[in-house]
Amino acid sequence: MSFGRLERTQGPQPMSEINVTPLVDVMLVLVVIFIITAPLLASSIKLDLPRTEAAQTGELPKFVRVVIDPAAQIFLNDQKTDLAALATSLAQATSADPDTELQLRADQAVPYGRVVEVLGVAQKAGLRRIGFVAEPLKPSN
Fold it and tell me: Where does residue 81 rank: exposed (0-12), middle (13-18), buried (19+ CB within 10 A)?
């Protein structure tokens, strides 16, 4: 034991490294949120599509999407429209690109006559490529 001098111990030094663990946690939570919400943004109109074995998913470069909901309302690219406005929009799409495809999604509960009306408007507008969107059959186990 010495009497003249008191020795001090060094206190804790400031940390000079960045702690990235909270950043990684926040980023993983955001990724999970985006993964869950991305499929919900594909189409905002809820339909009960008919099922068939021939249904295949395929994205073509240029298409317009027409949806007929269970109440027989018409939507063009998720915007509500009527037959006259649909005819004008489809004619503009055809004049811009003659190879534009019409992807028609109609609920099972829609009367056949309403689907034929929309098809007539599309053909009158000059659309030659018309595709019917359906869901594939679920395999029975």
Answer: middle
